[in-house]
Each structure stands twice: as C-alpha cells, then as structure tokens.
Write a structure and sequence with these properties.
Layout lengths: L1 E2 L44 H7 L8 H7 L7 E4 L4 E4 L3 H9 L9 E3 L6 E5 L12 E7 L6 E7 L1 H7 L17 E11 L2 H13 L2 H8 L4 H4 L4 H8 L2 H14 L4 H21 L4 H23 L3
Parallel strand pairs: 1-8, 6-8
Antiparallel strand pairs: 2-3, 4-7, 5-8, 6-7
C-alpha cells in the first residue's frame, strides 16, 4: 500500500490572539481548539525520478513548466527556453475527457479495502474531445480510522508526480493501443482524509479555487464567481471583506458552534491531507488561509451573540 509521508495529527497550538477586528475564542465552546494559523510545511520540490517514471519524455523539463502546462488555460505547447525545445503538454481538458470516457458502470465510487483488485478493466465511451486516458486508479482510504471503505479515483500519474512532493513514485502503466477497454492498475493510498483528497483531486485538474471553498462551507455566490488568486489575496488583506465572509458563514449556521466546529474540521482535514501529499501550491495554500480566517471570525461572531 502507498502511504504518504507523516502528516500532522493535530493543530499547531500557536497562541490565538486576533488583531482589533477579532477577540479571542470564547469559553462557551471549550471543546474546540483553534490555532491562530495553519502552519505551512517547508517547500519541497517534486521528485525528478517520479516525473521521469510518469512521463519519460518530460524527464528533463523543469517541474514548474510541467505544472503550468497542465493548467486548464495553458497553451498547448510550453517552451523550455533552457533547452531551446518545444515540449507538447497534454492539456487538462484532454485529461478530464479521458476520465469522462471511463464507463461509470465499471468504475465504482468506492470499494471495500479488503476486496480491492490489482486492476480494473474499464470500457471506454466516445468523447467529443481527443482524450488522454488515466493511467491508474487510486483506492484512497483513511490513515486515521479503521474504515473498510476505499474511495476510487482515476488519475494521471504525471498530475500527481508534478504536484505532490511527498507522493510515492508510481509504477508505470502500459495500455494496448486502440483497445476499447482500459486495464488500469489499482493503487491503495492511505491519507488523513479521503473526503479531503476528493477536493484536492478535483483541484489538481481544474485549479478552481472557488470549488475548494464551496466544498468546505457556505460562501456568498458573488464572492465565489470566477474566484482568482488575486481576489483571495485581496480578501486576506481586507478586514471588512473577512468580516463580511465570516458574517455570512455565521448566519448560514444560525450561529451554531457545533456546525462551525464541523466546518473547521473540514478545513483541518484538507490542511492535513495537503501536508501529507506535499501539495505545495501557493494559490491553494492562500485559499486555505482564507478559509481559516473566515472560520475564526465566524466563531467570534457566534460567541458575541445576535448581530
């Protein structure tokens, strides 16, 4: 079984003291332990060996070029100036088309971990876009519970190898050309939260920050519309915007601290799983920071009573 590197099992218990726009967490919810920030691990670059194993033709291409090329809005070609070479990078839309081409009837969303097969034979459906098919199926299970359920995710090994510094080297996968069926190896993977991995799996393909926030807790639709990294950074630097977002969240749960604690747990699990995978994406980390600031503000508003 694959198991990513050791992950944090608890919050970094830094002192919780807000600036003027917030007070400390009240004693009304003593069971909730909230740190002031969620610590980012030291930056680590992805493994060149993992990239070479996933895509030998990209073995000498800088990882940052590969990541840029895999973004949905990237050009079809990425120029590697140091090598005076044009490297063709399959776009995200082709990879998503490849995932969509897998027949759902042969790709369960989950399976008992005790009955995972070594591979799955999955028929292919016709797509309107020229597809790049997945290379593996990840059977993702929790490293923190004894649940027998594994969530199943089709993946392209280069997506993981180019974005996850702590992800183990993935064995190569070979397919028969022009076959109507893919034989995809099933790789068991243990992470802190399979549900959080689902959010990160989607993000690694789409890079849609608004979808990350939507998966964590309610946010105003106007703020989420086509959310950019610049908008996330601006919100982090704006006390009024943070207050507005926290007010929205607090109102959406009627100030219920248990509901807020559940939302905080979702952010915590996402943070733990990002650290475990070594997903060092600045845009994603800033978005997690924003989510945490909103959670902290919502707790303070709930403690203060009706607004």
């Amino acid at each position: 079984m694959f198991q990513v590197a050791t992950h944090p099992t608890s919050f970094d218990k830094q002192s919780y003291s807000h600036t003027q726009r917030r007070s400390s967490v009240p004693q009304a919810v003593p069971s909730v332990q909230l740190p002031r920030t969620l610590a980012r691990p030291p930056y680590a670059e992805v493994s060149r060996q993992a990239i070479a194993a996933a895509a030998p033709e990209l073995a000498d291409v800088p990882a940052e070029y590969i990541r840029r090329g895999l973004r949905p809005m990237a050009n079809e070609y990425v120029q590697v100036s140091s090598f005076h070479l044009i490297i063709s990078i399959k776009r995200c839309r082709r990879m998503l088309a490849g995932i969509s081409a897998l027949a759902p009837s042969h790709l369960p969303s989950s399976m008992p971990r005790s009955r995972l097969p070594p591979s799955l034979a999955i028929p292919l459906r016709t797509t309107s876009t020229s597809p790049t098919y997945p290379t593996h199926i990840l059977a993702v299970m929790s490293s923190k519970t004894a649940s027998d359920t594994a969530m199943m995710f089709p993946v392209h090994s280069i997506v993981l190898a180019s974005q996850c510094a702590q992800f183990p080297r993935i064995p190569s996968s070979h397919q028969q050309p022009h076959s109507p069926t893919l034989q995809l190896p099933v790789l068991p993977l243990s992470v802190p939260s399979p549900a959080a991995f689902s959010v990160l799996h989607s993000y690694m393909y789409s890079h849609r920050l608004e979808n990350v926030l939507k998966a964590l807790f309610p946010m105003p639709s106007g703020f989420l519309h086509s959310l950019s990294h610049e908008a996330v950074q601006a919100a982090l630097a704006s006390g009024p915007t943070l207050h507005q977002l926290s007010s929205y969240l607090c109102s959406s749960v009627s100030g219920n601290p248990q509901a807020l604690a559940s939302h905080a747990a979702h952010v915590k699990e996402l943070w733990q799983t990002m650290v475990a995978l070594g997903l060092n994406d600045p845009e994603l980390w800033d978005t997690v920071d924003l989510a945490w600031e909103v959670i902290l503000g919502a707790f303070n508003l709930a403690a203060a009573g009706p607004m």
